[in-house]
DNA sequence: TATATATGCAACTTTTTGGTTGCGCAAAAA
DNA sequence: TTTTTGCGCAACCAAAAAGTTGCATATATA
């Protein structure tokens, strides 16, 4: 079973869950209330998010609070980094072209 | 058919294609040579990447060159931005805690 | 203690996805 | 002009994923 961050964030419901628990941890029931989906369906998404270590659990009596493990999000950031470099370079090149044109028209 | 950037980058082969054409545009055959996968399989991935506008095509005779539309990658960056804020805040809070401890031990 | 609540897990169904095969078309080469 | 090459597209298949249903279990509550 492929279970990485990229696969985890591919699903829109999971991205919504991530957004929801980003600031405070929540129980599956509380999370499910925000969606049309059933509790079981949300539970399954939570399991996937847990398996790829994007969220963590904390048991409190019979309730389980899920929270975002923000550290894991940095993995996506790290992947993006190489492309960020490219678009910054391209922007610089555009800058150069523009300033050359400017000089010529002077 | 759901076709967004997040779904596009979920597949490892597609991420590899993105990395491959990030710097120079390539034909499907040339791309496929870098994988075990068949040309048709790669073609299908290219179609998905094209549909979500992550890559662009340019016909040159009977060859078609595919290139990365780096602008689209910024969409992922924009999505990450909100979480980047969170992890920076948490880091600041940690900093505060640490400096408080430091002061107390002085 | 009996009942209600919060949750996970396994089995099953449906949908989606990734891959292959075969075909057609247009451009280049022979 | 015939053949080869580069490619897309549609049809099919198998595997994976998403969702549903029906439990089982543990913790609260009456």
From TrEMBL, chains A, B:
Domain HTH arsR-type residues, every copy:
1-88
Top-level division of the source organism's lineage: Bacteria
Q: Which InterPro entries match?
A: ArsR-like_HTH, HTH_ArsR_DNA-bd_dom, WH-like_DNA-bd_sf, WH_DNA-bd_sf
GO MF, one term, reads: DNA-binding transcription factor activity
Which Gene3D superfamilies does this UniProt record tie to the protein? Winged helix-like DNA-binding domain superfamily/Winged helix DNA-binding domain (1.10.10.10)
What is the protein's given name?
Metalloregulator ArsR/SmtB family transcription factor
Q: Which organism is it from?
A: Flagellimonas sediminis
């Amino acid at each position: 079973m492929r279970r990485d961050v990229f696969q985890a964030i591919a699903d829109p419901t999971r991205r919504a869950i991530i957004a929801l628990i980003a600031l405070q941890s929540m129980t599956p029931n509380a999370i499910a209330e925000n969606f049309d989906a059933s509790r079981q369906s949300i539970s399954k998404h939570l399991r996937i998010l847990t398996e790829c270590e994007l969220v963590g659990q904390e048991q409190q009596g019979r309730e389980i609070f899920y929270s975002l493990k923000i550290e894991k999000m940095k993995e996506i950031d790290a992947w993006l980094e190489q492309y960020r470099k490219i678009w910054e370079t391209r922007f610089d090149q555009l800058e150069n072209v523009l300033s050359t044109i400017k000089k010529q028209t002077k």
